[in-house]
Amino acid sequence: MKIKKTVDGSQQKIYKLVSAYLMEQIESGKLKLGDAIYSEHTLCKMFNVSRTSIRRAIREMVENNILESQQGSGTFVKGKIPPKNIALINHYNRMMRANPLDTHFKDIVFDIESEITRRNCRCLMFSGIINNASSIGSKTSFLNADGIIIDGNYQDTLNEIDAFKQYFPACTLIEGFSKETSIPTVNPDFKPSFIELLNNEKKRERILFLTENRIASRRWTRLCFEEAVSELNMQEQVDVCSYTDEIPEPGLDYLNPDALIAPILERSILERNCRSIMCSSDRIAMYVIQILRRKNYRIPEDVTVSGCLGLQLSNMTDPPLTSIKTSVRLLAEAAVKMTLNQIYKKEIPAQMLVPAGVFYRESMPRI
């Protein structure tokens, strides 16, 4: 591991980074009360810095009663650093949390809380709507959090989502659209799975990708799909359509998605001869299946259908839905890790991707 020096080469900056690393080791439980810390020689080699920087870092921690130096024996962990407070700022409404067949959102809350606890940190929680940046401070001030994890659904209601950084310098967005924010983001890596599905369906004359652009996570899914199409050079074979684009935002709350999707399917199948429908969510795919069955299309003989997100209820459709799924636990682990790295002043990527995979079922069999 190599620490980068500041522009002025300040050793003061370097020793603080060494201190932060040692404190993280204690906080995470890798160094426990009474354990000897790494030798000066090991730390110098690990970070490629001078003994002066290492000794200054250790001296500061001794003065703060975190470490204890024993003559002729070494330096030991003396006290436990107070745990960091990490808050989940979640937008999940009551319907999402109460649906017994759709556990995705509850799993995110549970797995993030479990991962925060596993990291020896305190988990705090805020659930509710935030419509404007000016109310972020008043609604979240009670949290007293060292870092936060933000549910990506806030991008759908809060235009100035980056304003969270004014109140919480260490913050991570989970399942959002990274192109529309400077907040570090954790997302499922759907692109390889879309490449797999497109290769599976490439013998079809045309393929329709159906989505809704008003939801940030769907915009991310669409981006992954379009990158997969571009990589396979299948642009001429694929149609991309958002069924919400022509409807004013207030009207969407009163319209049944079924009524918006049905005419698109009719045009795509009859006029464009689409025989494979890929959807940006399982919910959209389930509407598609219902509509096609009413129109007496056989699935998958006449038209194949796939979804994305791998909801629990996706295997209860008729026929069961082929879907792309990522591990919620891995998303939670990545989000907590990225938040802690910000707290400890470590370098982080703008986005961290979590692998996904395809669950093949009857609606789109593996060829």
Textual characterization of the structure:
This protein folds into three domains: 11-77, Winged helix-like DNA-binding domain superfamily/Winged helix DNA-binding domain (Arc Repressor Mutant, subunit A); 85-188 and 328-355, Rossmann fold (3-Layer(aba) Sandwich), CATH 3.40.50.2300; 189-326, 3-Layer(aba) Sandwich (Rossmann fold), CATH 3.40.50.2300. It is of the alpha/beta class. It has helices at 11-27, 40-47, 51-63, 94-98, 104-118, 136-140, 164-167, 191-201, 216-232, 249-252, 257-270, 282-294, 328-343, and strands at residues 67-70, 74-77, 85-90, 122-127, 147-151, 171-174, 185-189, 206-211, 238-242, 274-279, 304-308, 322-326, 351-359. It is elongated. Residues 1-10 have low confidence and may be disordered. The longest helix has 17 residues, at 11-27. Helix content is 39%, strand content 19%. It is built from 13 helices and 13 strands.
The biggest beta sheet reads:
11 strands, mixed
What is the chain-wise order of helices and strands? HHHEEEHHEHEHEEHEHEHHEHEEHE
Quaternary organisation: single chain
Radius of gyration: 25 Å
